[in-house]
Amino acid sequence: MSPRHRRGEETRERLLAAALDLYEREGADGFTMTAVTGTSGVSVGSLYHHFGSFDGLAAALYARCLSGLLDAVIAALDAVPPGEGTGSGEDAEARAAAGIEAVVTGYLGFTRAHRAAAHFVHASAYAAFLPAHAALVAREKEPRLAGILGWLRPYAEAGLVVELPDALTEMLVVGPVAETARRWLAGAPGIDLDEACRLLPERIWRSLRAAVPP
User: Fold this and answer.
1) Phi, psi angles (nearest 5°) of residue 31
2) CATH of 55-208, one of 1.10.10.10, 1.10.357.10, 3.90.180.10, 3.30.43.10
3) What is the pTM of this model?
4) From CA 58, how far away is CA 210, in angstroms rounded?
5) Which of 26, 33, 126, 153 lies at a C-alpha separation of 20 to 30 Å from 101?
6) Which residues make up the CATH 1.10.357.10 domain(s) of the chain?
7) What is the CB neighbour count within 10 angstroms for residue 175?
8) Whole-number CA gyration radius for the chain
């Protein structure tokens, strides 16, 4: 990497780090271009050079935070002990259930450990700046999400998990966890992440588990 390229990467990192820190401290109202450039010490011109606009910076930050969240889920899935092939017996069913637990604990563990990043993801999911940068977000999100859903696919093929379109499987697996995280981040009463990690995996697994023939 050339010195010029390295300096450019360092500037991008400084802007992204300052943006997330500012969002954590000031919330959406304080998340402005003036505040980010002032906090980072990077000029407006340099921000435009690296991200095209302030919306481009926000989209890059969203993509980075979302990638970190999904990577945490993938790491948790990778830690599930492998078995002798997927199979279709009790051992395989236990591994599939363990995978669901890994998704829950990986997602909520990231939410707890990286609250600012998780908050930015959930608060920005329908933000006005995202549609124009959908390709950037898709490059980061789609392969990771495909990996998570792909982990479950062999169990569906073996008849252990219901076969559904990927979007609906995502809703069943990630939807309850994401909503739990969103409410916890918003400070909603009665949301305990430890309790959610203990109780949600079994309930989600029941919604995905293929019906057992009588």
Assistant:
1) -90, 85
2) 1.10.357.10
3) 0.92
4) 41
5) 126
6) 55-208
7) 13
8) 20
List Cα–Cα distances, 84 to 8, 51, 93, 149, in angstroms.
47, 47, 12, 20
Bridge partner residues of 108 (DSSP):
none
The residues near 78 (Cβ < 8 Å, ≥ 6 apart) are none
Structure tokens at 209: 């588990």
Walk along the chain (214 residues) in steps of 10 and give the mean pLDDT of each run: 79 96 93 95 96 97 98 97 62 94 98 97 93 96 96 92 94 96 96 97 95 54
Residue 62 to residue 122: CA distance in whole angstroms: 9
